[in-house]
Write a structure and sequence with these properties.
This protein is of the alpha/beta class and 200 residues long. The chain is built from 9 helices and 4 strands.
Length: 200
């Protein structure tokens, strides 16, 4: 997320770029650790509104956290390639030992069934823009996914009830956060609440 963070800083935002070990814990625990750490920053505590830009699992962490915690300061959220309705890849491979080793407990929670964590979180109640990719460089994964996808999640499964806008770009999952057009659209949504360039 370093290129995205740099662009946000240049646009005048204070940025806390949080890294977390996604293979070590459940979605709920990861969200508490990662987001609590970000919000504890003294500069962040002085902000009246806090926006989030997430990639992949990060979007589910935000949904989990603010389903359980006060969202009084929560501003706009942009999610890049989020498995908001899970991924068929987890349905197919989630039971494999190697998959569980590589993706950890959180990865195993990302199936498409009604009892998967993303589907149990319900609608979002914050201002959300989703950017989904429709280009894949992982054809093996894409064979398991219904419809247009980014090699990890289908465009359709990035949707979540309550979202404000969905934008589809021809970018693969691993490159969404560093694509210049995606960065520009992200800045637009944070500033204006929609993905099109500001009329001003």
């Amino acid at each position: 997320m370093s290129e995205m963070a740099t662009a946000l800083v240049e646009a005048g935002y204070y940025v806390e770029n949080v890294d977390y070990s996604s293979r070590t814990a459940s979605i709920e625990k990861l969200s508490d650790v990662a987001i609590d750490r970000a919000l504890a920053d003294p500069k962040m505590q002085s902000c009246s509104r806090i926006h989030f830009v997430t990639h992949s699992l990060g979007g589910i962490l935000v949904r989990s956290y603010f389903r359980r915690h006060d969202s009084g300061k929560l501003g706009r959220v942009v999610m890049l390639g989020p498995p908001n309705q899970g991924s068929e890849v987890v349905d197919k491979l989630g039971g494999w030992w190697l998959f569980r080793k590589l993706n950890g407990p959180a990865g195993s929670e990302l199936g498409t069934g009604p009892d998967s964590t993303p589907n149990m979180l319900g609608p979002v109640d914050f201002e959300l823009g989703v950017i989904a990719g429709d280009r894949s460089i992982n054809w093996i994964n894409s064979l398991m996914i219904n419809g247009k996808n980014d090699g990890k999640v289908s465009v359709e499964r990035t949707r979540v009830a309550g979202m404000k806008e969905l934008l589809v770009v021809h970018v693969a999952h691993p490159f969404l956060m560093r694509n210049k057009a995606v960065i520009g659209y992200t800045l637009s949504f944070l500033k204006c609440g929609y993905f099109k360039p500001s009329p001003a």
